[in-house]
Structures are given as C-alpha cells and as structure tokens.
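Encode chain A's predicted structure.
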Amino acid sequence: MNEFAHGWKQNGRRTDSPERGRLTAWRFVTTWIRREASALDPGCFALVMATGIISNAFYLDGQYPLADALFAVNLVAYPWLCLLTALRVARYAAAMGADLFSPRRVFLFFTVVAATDVLGMSIGLRGFPTIALAMWLFAFALWLGLIYFGFGVLMFHNTVEGADVVEGAWLNAIVGIQSLVILGGAVALPAAKAPPQLFVLLPMLWTIGLVLYGIFVVLLSSRVFFLALRPADVTPPLWVVMGAAAISVNAGAILLADGGTTPFLQSLQPFLAGVTLALWAWGTWWIPLLLLLGVWKHGFHRFSIDYTPMLWSIVFPLGMYSVATLRLSQAMEVPALASYSRLMTWIALAVWAATVVGLFVASYRSASKLMSLAQWFGSAADGHE
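Encoded structure for chain A:
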C-alpha cells in the first residue's frame, strides 16, 4: 500500500497540488481495481445471471422499460466482470488456480456459462441472433471444458473433510447445461439455420442436466434431512436447488414449444411435458422449505445478513422460477400461472434491489477503507519531506 505515498513524490520532490491529486486518484482507482480482481469470487457472474433473467421476465411480459433498464445494467456488468477475471488470470494466477482446483469453488465457474447464455438470450430477444449465436458457441465451448475439469477436480482433489454437498454450488453445473438448451433452442440454432438433426443435441443436454440434477439432489437431500444441520450450512447457494429445477422447466418448455424437428423428437413430446411439469412442482415445493431454513438461521439463531456475492444465488432462482412458470403457463394454456409468474417477477425484482443496495454498501466500505489507508500513507509521506 505504500504506493500511495510513493505516488505523491516525483523525482524526489513533492509534486504540485493538482498533479498530486490526479496521481493520487489514479493510483487509488488502479489499486482498488487490482484489489477487487485479486479477491474476485468465482461466482460473481451470478449478478449477470440474476439481472438478466429478471430483465428477460419483464421483456416476455411486455414491460419493456424495466426490461431495458436491467439489460443496460448487464451491458456494463458483464464486460466489467470479464475484465476483472482477465486481470485476475494475468496478475493473480495463483489465486485463480486455487479456486479452479478447489472442489468447493470450481463449480462456481459455471456461472460464467449461464451468465453468457442469459445475456445472449436478452440480446437475441432484441433482434440480434448472430451475436446470441456467438455467445452460445463461446458458452458451449467453456461448458465443455469446465464439465470434465470440474468433475476431475471433484474426483481427484476432494477429501472427506473437503467440499460438502450441502453447499449447493455444485448445482451450477446443471444451471450451465440447461442455459445452453434455452439459448440454443430459442435463438442460437435457428439463427445458424442448423439442420433438424442437430436439434437432437438439445434434448441430449437437457437429459444430462436431469441426470446430474437427480444425483446431486439425492445426495443433498440426504445430507439436509438425515445428518446434523448447522446454521452455517444454510447458505444462499442452497437456493440453486430450486433454481436448477426452474431452469430445467424453462429448458423443457423451450423444447416443447419447438414441437420437435424430426419424428423422433416429436415422439419425445409427452415425456418432455410430464417431466417438465414434475420439475416445476418439485421446484415449487422447495420454496417454502428454503424460506423456513432462512428463518431458522437468521431468526432463531440470529445470524446477520451481510452482503456476499453468494446472495445473487437467491435472486437468480427467483427470476428463473418466474420465467419458467410463464413458459409453462403458455405450454399448458393455464392463464392463472401467468399471473403467478408476474407476481414472482416483482418479488425477484425486490430481492434484486435489496441485493444491489448491499453491493453498493459493501463497495463503499471497501473503497472507504482503502481511502483511509491512502490518506494515512499520504500523511506519512508528508511527514518525511
């Protein structure tokens, strides 16, 4: 941190006040950016996921001003997080490697896949399918590398005292898979004018996601219901249990809307419809239980609610559930579900707004702490002149 004091001298002499101010401000900004990059959470792209899915929900409901405002936020947030990630790879490779080889954290990187697809969907809805296709191809390539790397880390680096399935972050792998189905089926493959036979890739991915979801949910349910549960075990990523079910419903509804491009895919429609409805019911069942766990932790055990990037793991499932409910209402032709979806979208927006406030407060405190250090070093530098 003594770079602040160093920045106030030039060629062994104190610089004039305006130059000193500019230099100090620049050093403060660059130091703050490096600090943020070094400690960047691998799941930070959940912010883009949460903002994007609520934007898409409002867009599908015809509320374009709100949808566009949230879309504008994502157009800033996504490249900013990409820049911080690139800086972390370049300057803090050891920290990045530690996260990649951690069974607890490696699956958080799937938020990059899902965020890219959610933003790609927003772009596709606004009439730019070619850009959406490019984003889908990037997300697919990233997912293909992460899925085997992540499970490799899980198999070869995990220990008895290592990652605990109750953390829920592993379900981000399923979210990443199903996001590929949604963007691929709704925008990317039609934009590429893909042959009908290529569309079989989408139900394949959807099924892989279902199988992995089944494995993880059985393990997680066993851990939650039959082993000792501590308040510290109840974390925001647990909401991904519901979110993974909701995004699977959304993906299933996309496949149902497509209707099947080949006779074989058409024969799968009854199966898709039944499983999609069952997943929606299962995800709905989890919502009161997750709320109960939150009351148990924060109400009975008095744990404070402090901002952490993991909080976006609550916002995204709520937004995805609202979109999944809307698409299911269209597939089933049940208007009442559309009204319920609209209510859930506003709830998701309220939780998003509260989380944004927490983010700004945490960022302000971080910047203030850094500024205090800068002023202390500046005073020390003045004292040595």
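The longest helix spans residues 335-383.
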